[in-house]
Amino acid sequence: MKRIVSGCLLLCGALAAKAQERPNIVLFIADDVSRDDIGCYGNNQVKTPCIDRLASSGIKFTNMFLTASSSSPSRNSIITGRYPHNTGGAELHTEPPDYMISFPEVLKSNGYYTVQAGKFHMGPYARRGFDQINDNNKLNGDGGEELWVKCLQERPREKPFFLWFAAMDAHRAWGPNEFSGKHNPGEIVPPFYLAQGEKTGDDLARYYDEIYRFDHYIGLVYDELVEQGVTDNTLIIIMADNGRPFPHSKTRVNDRGLLSPFIIHWPDGIGIKTRECTSLISSIDIAPTILELASAPIPETIQGRSFTKLLKNPGRNFRNFVFAEHNWHDYEAHERMLRTKDFLYILNSRPQFPQMGPADAVGSPSFSELDSLRKMNSLSKQQEDIFTAPRLSEELYRNDNDPDQFNNIAGLQEFGRMLVRMRKTVAEWMRETGDNIPDDLTKDWYERVPGYVKTPWINIRGEPVDQKYNATKNNNKGRF
C-alpha cells in the first residue's frame, strides 16, 4: 500500500511539474481601441509606456484583424474561435447558444486555473470556462481593471493560469479618472478624416486618457508577475475588441474598425528580442494558438488556425484571406469584408444607409463637429464619407497606395478581374460557413441622430443571420 501511495505521489508530482512547464497566459483586451492609438504603432500623441515596453521585448503584430468591429460579436468570436454568424451572437447584445465551446473551457478542463475580471459581454455559455468571474462593474472600477492584480495574487500556485482581463477602457461615456488631463487637447492633431477643431481635440485627449489607464494597469499586473517570479513562462497578449468609438472607425469594416493592436510577450517562448510580424491573422486564430501552446486539444468547432509557427519565425506567411462582418449595432446593417495583403473588398447589402458609426459615436463631440461642418458645406471628401447615402454596394481598395481606404476602385475597368475574384471569394466563404442575408434584418433601434432617440422598432429583433442555414452547427473554416 505504501508503494502504491508513493507511486501516486510521484505521478502527481510529475504531472504538476509538467503542468508548470505549460505557459501561464494573460490576455488583456481593451474596449474600443484602434491599433493606431498605441504608441508602439506610431502614435506619438498617446501615452502607453507599459505596452510599448512589452512590445519592445516581444512581437508586435501589424496585421491582426478582428471579425467584427462591434463588442459582443467580436468577443464571442475571439473566445470561440468562430466567425460571428457561426457563434449565434452576430448582433450586438445577442448571446450564443449554451452548446458553444469557449477556449477557456478547454483550458479549465485540462488543468488550467481560469479567471475573468472586467467586462464580460458574452453570455452564459462562456461562463463555464472560468473558475472565477469578476464582472461586477462597481468592484472592477470605472475602467474595469481594479481587480486584476488581486486575481493574480489569489490564484492557486500549483496550477498554470489563464487570465482574461477585459477593460472597459476606452468605451464611452468617459468620466473623470486618475489619469484625466494627462493628454493636452491643444497638442492633439486629429486624423485628417475627423474635424480639426477644439471639440475633436478634447474628445481625443479624453479618449487617450482612458487608454493611459488601461496601460497603467497592464504595468501593475506585469509588476506582480515579476514579484511572483513567473514572467519568463507567462504569455502576455495585448489587444482590443474593435476600433475607436469615433466616426469612421467603430462598426466599420475598414482597417480603422478591424485592425487591432496585437502584442505578444513571452520570454521563454519567443525570447526578448524586438520583432515585428506583418502576416495576416484573424482573431479566430487566437483560440487554437493558445490551446496548442497549452498542450490542450483543439475542438472541431474552432474555425481558426494556430499561428504558433509565427512565434518562432515572425517573417513567415500565414493567411492569404481575412474575413469579417458587420451586423446590427444600434442600426440596421449587413456587410461582409475580405482583406488580403494588397486589397480590401466590402459587400454592403444595406447600401441605402449612411455609415455614421454606432449611437455612441453619433452622440460624440467629434461627430457634432463634423456635422457642423457638413451644414456649412465645409467637409473634405474623406470627412464626408460617413454621411454618404446611398452608398455603393461594393467597395474595393488598394492598400499599398491607399492605406486609409477612401479611394473606391470597384468601378475601374483595370481592377475588374480583381473585383470579380474578391466577390466570388466572399460568396464562397458565406456559402461554406452558412452565412445569410435575411430580408427581415433587425431595424434601427434609434434615430440616426445624437441622443439615443428611440424608433418604433426598439428592442425588436429581425431574423438572425445564422438561422436559415443553421450556421451555429457549421464548423467549416472557409478559405485560408
Folded structure, characterized:
The chain is globular. It is an alpha/beta fold and about 475 residues long. It has helices spanning about 1-20, 50-55, 70-80, 85, 105-110, 125, 135-140, 150-155, 200-230, 255-260, 265-270, 285-295, 310, 360, 365-375, 380-385, 415-430, and strands at about 25-30, 60-65, 115-120, 130-135, 160-165, 235-240, 260-265, 275, 280, 320-325, 335-340, 345-350, 395-400. Strand 10 and strand 11 form a beta hairpin. Helices cover about 30% and strands about 15% of the residues. The protein is built from 17 helices and 13 strands. It folds into two domains: about 20-320, 3-Layer(aba) Sandwich (Alkaline Phosphatase, subunit A), CATH 3.40.720.10; about 325-475, Arylsulfatase, C-terminal domain, CATH 3.30.1120. The relative contact order is 0.16.
- Report the CATH architecture of the largest domain: 3-Layer(aba) Sandwich
How helix-rich are the residues, as a percent range?
A: 25-40%
Q: What is the helix/strand order?
A: HEHEHHHEHEHHEHEHEHEEHHEEEHHHEH
What structural class do helix, strand and pairing data support? alpha/beta
Tell me the number of structural domains.
2
Shape: globular
Strand tally: 13
For the sheet with most strands, the description reads:
9 strands, mixed
| Secondary structure tally, helices | 17
Uncertain ranges: 1-19
Average of per-residue pLDDT values: 95
Q: CATH-wise, what's the superfamily of the largest domain?
A: Alkaline Phosphatase, subunit A
Taking all Cα atoms into account, the compactness measure Rg is: 22 Å
Portion in strands: 5-15%
For this structure, what is the CATH class of the largest domain?
A: Alpha Beta
Report how far apart the termini are: 55 Å
Query: What is the third-level CATH name, the topology of the largest domain?
Result: Alkaline Phosphatase, subunit A
